[in-house]
Amino acid sequence: MNPTTTQTPSPKVRYTEEILASLAEEPPRLPSKYFYDATGSRLFDAICALPEYYLTRTETGILERDAKAMAAAIGPHCELLEYGSGSSTKTTLLLDALVKPARYIPIDVSRAHLHDAAQRIHARYPDLSVEPLCADFAGEIVLPSEAAGTRVAYFPGSTLGNLTDAGARGLLERMTRTLGPGGLLLIGVDLVKPESVLVPAYDDAAGVTAAFNRNLLVHLQSLVDLQVNPTAFEHRAIWNADEHRMEMWLEASSDQVLELAGQRFAIPRGKRILTEFSHKYTPERLLDLAAGFDPVARWSDPQGWFLVQLLRVRG
Ligand SMILES: C[S@@+](CC[C@H](N)C(=O)[O-])C[C@H]1O[C@@H](n2cnc3c(N)ncnc32)[C@H](O)[C@@H]1O
Predict the structure, then answer these.
(1) What DSSP character marks residue 101?
(2) Which fold has domain 54-193+281-313?
């Protein structure tokens, strides 16, 4: 029998295939993970500081008040894995409260930003082993070595909400395997609230979210050679009440043609490309999505706008 060799496609080929398939959908889409090159990560940090973006402020307030209770429920010597760690800013509130954490593994697709954040964490906690992992959590996460303590996944920022329900269920299911029986997940999710609060959070007066949205096209120009004119697209933020989610779109302000790997996509004036959704949850809906976990404890803010939920892998 002849041995067969399988060749893994290069990252650029995989990205191109994913983007071609997304643009071919109706309506056309672009995956939101491509927001995050170095510029996108910087713009996201700027969004977090905006007065309209209540999410970061509210989640930070919960941590400032309750991180000690969270640390007590987690226990000492844990190995903390952070999914979509970004700047690891809120993480310091948790690390300050945790008793002798054994290792911190921040996981993100935005490589340079991840490494800068990991260096800052290492400088602040010199005794903590910090091992950044540049990886896409849409696939299997391969951890560096044996667990250094009870595995605890930290998944703040309501990043779960950027996934479809099927995507969220899949990720939470993969997390149960990564964490193992008894492993913990501390997850922060945004809750359903009035449209008058939600829409400005995704369409700020200073136009930072609009720049973040358009930067997706700029990033794809360099990542996969997408032929596109980013300035010909307007930012739109819409509350989809049926799906309980905020949606971000890029709307063509004149007739446009996008070209990638020899394929052309006509986007006439007024047509939109879906770039992100941010689901808003109820506590019950989160537990339904996290079917492989049991609830341990939860914390919220006085307005009930945001939820930090601790879950334990069942079994
Ligand atoms: C909404 S931001 C949240 C950042 C930070 N955790 C916070 O709470 O402010 C989402 C983060 O997840 C990262 N990210 C998005 N999709 C990802 C994916 N598929 N795999 C790994 N990281 C991803 C982004 O680079 C970004 O840092």
Answers:
(1) -
(2) Rossmann fold (3.40.50)
